[in-house]
Design a protein that fits this description.
single chain, alpha/beta, Metallo-beta-lactamase, Chain A, six-stranded mixed beta sheet, 8 helices, 21% strand, globular
Length: 282
Amino acid sequence: MRKIKRNIFFENSYAGVTVGAFLFPEHTILVDAPLKPEDGRAWLAALKDAGGSPRTTLVNLDAHPDRTLGAQTLQADVLAHDETTRQFRRRAAIFKTLRQESGAEWESTPGLTGLRWVMPRITFSHTANLYFDGSQLQVVERPGVGPGACWLIAPEDEVIFVGDALTLDEPPFIGQADIPLWMEHLEELQAREYKNFTIVAGRGGKAEARDLKQMHSLIKDMHGKLRGISRSKNAPAEIEKLAGKYADRYKPSTRLRALYIQRLRHGMQEYAARLLANAKRK
């Protein structure tokens, strides 16, 4: 567990996503959930040792299973965007492991079958403001990376958790993205307003300015190439080649390379299909 400032922590060693926590005297705010039940229990124990309150609220930064499936273990009230709630309602109440497809962490993690999705008790459409011990937290809609995606901002402490809008040392998920809007969000993070903020990526932990620039460059390049590929008769083969090229940027091991190619292939296929469908409607 790593301390950012006084009562703010994050942990990026668990399977799935980077998780965070704000420890107030009478309430603990959790940012996303560790994927594995055993990691969730370890996270709660670490927070208890650090002085965390047993009264907890979990903020889901989007509906991705890697950050939401482990919520059951945390036994917290859940706050999420309206769209996240809608996505939960389209899923079976009890999780069953499916064949690997999207290159997500949950697809290669054993022991998850039988977990239940935890429906949010508190939802919002654009912004939610939380106040604890004289401090304000803002949960704001930033749906570039996907519908219902959010950031959690601590203005006074200059800390921001941005979910999968930023991933470090691994490729992003683009299947549900609006890349032009996503690029605007990354430009927002590079503006003067957030110059002195500690930015915590959804996967990989604390980010630097160069990480924002690299992510912006990557998704801009993807968007440009996929606009052309979406109209090609050889789109599957071109996407396969492109997935390998992008995966190799991360210099992965053999196992991770296969995972990253699967993630990129799936995401680019989904994104190209939407580009083509939108073009046909015009």
